[in-house]
Amino acid sequence: MALPTLYIGHGAPMLLEDALWTSQLSQVAQGIEKPKAILIVSAHWESAPITLSNPLAGTPLVYDFSGFDQKFYQMTYESPDAQDLAKKVVALMPDTEPVAMTNRGLDHGAWVPLRVMYPDADIPVLQMSMPTQDPGRLLEIGRRLQPLRDEGVLIIGSGFMTHGLQYLRDWSTDAVAPTWSSEFDAWASEALAKGDVDSLANFKELAPGMPYAHPTVEHFIPLFITLGASKRADQAPDTLIDGYFMGLSKRSFAAI
């Protein structure tokens, strides 16, 4: 049976110390069959053409954040060799979507949630860049990746359902969600429940709370890789996590 595809909120490194969030992510991993490999798309890597992270065993991490405790810069996540998965991704892409290789490691949108979900780091992990912000093209890239699911590959889009950091006024973890965050989250939840991919793809024009919920869109659009890689993008996904962290929506889901 094919693995589901996931869209998860990854958060900053400090979320590794949030008991609720880590327990929720752990439950997500425990609720699905252990994957043979993981392909993850993070909000923090936009690069064209499609580019793959270093697939060798023990791929280093990218500490793409600042101002945190020194311990976060010493964390590791030495996953096994993912060269076989890299070859499969390349083979699945058409000539119009060339794939480049790089020595880049895993950024925090990948390794922070994976340290929680699969702490033993015993699963090959490959990160793939987002080559575009166009929802339609991201959906098509996701569709190309569908066959990997039948081979035990877990495909993850890693972002955050709302991400208007610059508009936050209360930085406490249990802050009340600003209206722009709660209204965007409710809209996205309803659109997902209806399988309304067209509305989701037109979120800039249709969603309440814009552009405050996403002054830049990179934390929302990994969702389209997730939906594209599902068998039925127009079928309601299963909500895995909801609620807020610092007023930002943590909504995460699994699509089949």
- The count of DSSP E runs of length 2 or more, i.e. the number of strands, is 10
Would you identify the CATH architecture?
3-Layer(aba) Sandwich
What is the averaged pLDDT score? 96
| N→C terminal distance | 10 Å
The number of domains is 1
CATH topology (level 3) name? Protocatechuate 4,5-dioxygenase, Chain B
List unreliable stretches of 5+ residues. Answer: none
Kindly describe this structure:
The protein has 256 residues and is of the alpha/beta class. The chain has one domain: Protocatechuate 4,5-dioxygenase, Chain B (3-Layer(aba) Sandwich). The protein contains 8 helices and 10 strands. The chain has helices at residues 19-30, 83-92, 108-117, 135-145, 179-194, 197-201, 203-206, 222-229; strands spanning 5-9, 37-42, 50-52, 99-101, 125-127, 153-159, 238-241, 244-245, 248-249, 252-255. The strands form 3 sheets. The protein has a 6-stranded mixed sheet with strand order 5-2-6-1-10-7, sandwiched between helices. Strands 3-4 form a two-stranded parallel ribbon. The protein has a two-stranded antiparallel sheet with strand order 8-9. The longest helix has 16 residues, at 179-194. It starts with a strand and ends with a strand.
